[in-house]
Amino acid sequence: MFGLAQGVLAVQVALVVGGFAYAALADWRVREVTDRLWQFLGLAGVALGAVLLAPGGAIPLAFWFLVGAFALEHMFPWSLGPRFERYEDLLDLGIYVGVIVVVLGAIARVGIGPTAVPAEVIAVLVSVVLARVLFEVGILYGGADAKGLMIAGVLLPLFSTPLLPSPAAVAPLLAVLPFSLNLLVDAALLSVAIPLGIAVVNVSRGDLHGWAGFTGYQIPVRELPKRYVWLRDPTFGDARTQEESVETSAEDRARREKIAEELTRKGVQRVWVTPQVPYLVVLAAGAVAALVAGNLLFDLFALV
Questions:
Q1: What's the CA gap between 291 and 155, in Å, rounded?
Q2: Structural domain boundaries of the chain?
Q3: I need a surface site. Which of 198, 207, 299, 304 has the fewest CB within 10 A?
């Protein structure tokens, strides 16, 4: 029988798939994702989660709205104004500490459960903190990547029923691990396909030169302004330095146009580049993999 819970789950899954597909396409085409997407998905996720947790009473709902607001705070720009701008980081830290202390204190007092602190609340809290930590240490470089991971946690805090049956040893883990963590693990594993794909392209061109053939390929200099790529020539900085030196896709294109002009003056006709593959594309693939097969890493371990 298709009840309320199944209906809400179907909507949640559809929003995850559709939202990440839209974000990945936008990031691929223009290297920008509007905050309105994350705001809509976040608000929808909080509303859908409230529907599922409402039967548990006021306590689960209160904590759900707390962590929901905690996640949404990252999706809506806010400022204390020029006068108090220096206190914004301190306030941000205070919000994190406050939410974590309140949730942990509630767990110690009333426990975890449908009428206490729901497991979904813990999953959202872990998703937000994980995304923020990965962003701060530079593993998730783009703000959209971190926001996407947070929103995945709000839309689907937990997901223990992937389309394909999971190994018996894996099923209990899927029941307690945040969906966002499974998504991230799957995305990391699937990202291996990027260097392999580059190598296949180079082999097809007869242009594979050792390990460098797994990270880049050659293109005509005249195409440099049209391609979302990082130049491999150290004269213009390594890929990470190039990435940190531009703020928008327009600035990136202007930089590539300037480099192409300089290379043309020097008589250079072809240049080695590394493709700028938006990590949101990889995260979208990870989301689909997590919905279809759960946690690929655990699945692999279970098969060994």
A1: 13
A2: 4-158, 193-275
A3: 304
